[in-house]
Predict the 3D structure of the following.
Amino acid sequence: MEPVKVAENVYWVGALDYEIRDFHGYRTQQGSTYNAYLIVDEKTTLIDAVKAPFVPELLRRVAKIVDPQKIDQVISNHAEMDHAGGLPHLMHIIGRDKPIYTSKMGEKALRGQFQNAHLNLKTVNPGESMSLGRLSLQFLETRMVHWPDSMFSFCPELGILFSQDAFGMHMCTSRRFDDEVASNVWSYEALKYFANILTPYTTPIAKALESVVSSGLLAKIKIICPDHGIIWRTNPAEIVSRYSKWVKQEPARKAVIVYDSMWRSTEKMATYLGDALSRENVLVKLMSMKTNHRSDVITELFTAGAVMVGSPTINNEMYPTIAEVLSYARGLKFQNKVGGAFGSYGWSGESAKNVQAALQSMNVQLPHPEVRHQWVPEEADLSGLNTMAKAVATALPQEAVPSDFGYM
Ligand code: FEO
């Protein structure tokens, strides 16, 4: 329960959640952290709070630096419950009359979420500055990164950007800084977080990144303190540069084959399609929904150019696990994907057509009609998958994926 010094008079005082495995539908295999930061100055300021059950942990960390009742004010950069859920309890301890500064949309969200908590909410405008004494904070509007209320706070004297969800990841370790965690570990977790949480908002994120660069702010940033995961103190420009790449959603010559199977016929089709795409020099990842979680599928899909989906027909519908992953993926509004649908059936065989329609509704380009097979297919029955593989391979970028292609 020790606080961690980030810079002179700035401390990480957040909470470690080693046990969480389901973060609103996202599988957090390595847990998560809810980062909060304390700035000790003439106005002692807490930046963001934690999930409700973790308030005692935050308070114990704060108490090692100052009496929690000496906190003068709170900045709420983001109103989602993992950062604001603890506010009512926290304000009860530090003083109900203490101000909570937030964006206009933050005020609406906090009032809506905590109707009976009587929080002393005050709004700040984009571009506004606030003196804390020796240090100050500037507020930047970053709407939809991740919610309409989201904003960044920047401390110019120390070059610290408090970036709420942006540049975060769901990963819990006892280590707080980028240089203390292997880069292959944080590379995967940062991408998984972006893919599952931020993909729908690539346009506003691109705009926010553009203003960070054009205003000259990027050059002034020495440390990025997000609300989840590790603090970027070694080379903060690296994670900003990855975001600048990810917002483009550039397709790669890679296909993810997502499928489920009742009696292994659709599985046979998936394997056959994988071989056919490999022959076309496409990097292939087969993912059965019996063994893969939807959020891991999305991570692989983010770096792929093609989404191939296979489902058997059950009671005239697609398989429930496929309906679920398609619904989750549709909400993420992927761009620049090609794809295809396939599936086996016994009687009526609606699933492949339904999957094709679902992919179409997701703006996936479909260069080949769906491929269906009645009963159990033999290799000779699957030539339709060869022509589908060729059509998809032609629609993908022609450069082969390099051997060091990872989660960058
Ligand atoms: Fe970590 Fe959008 O909350």
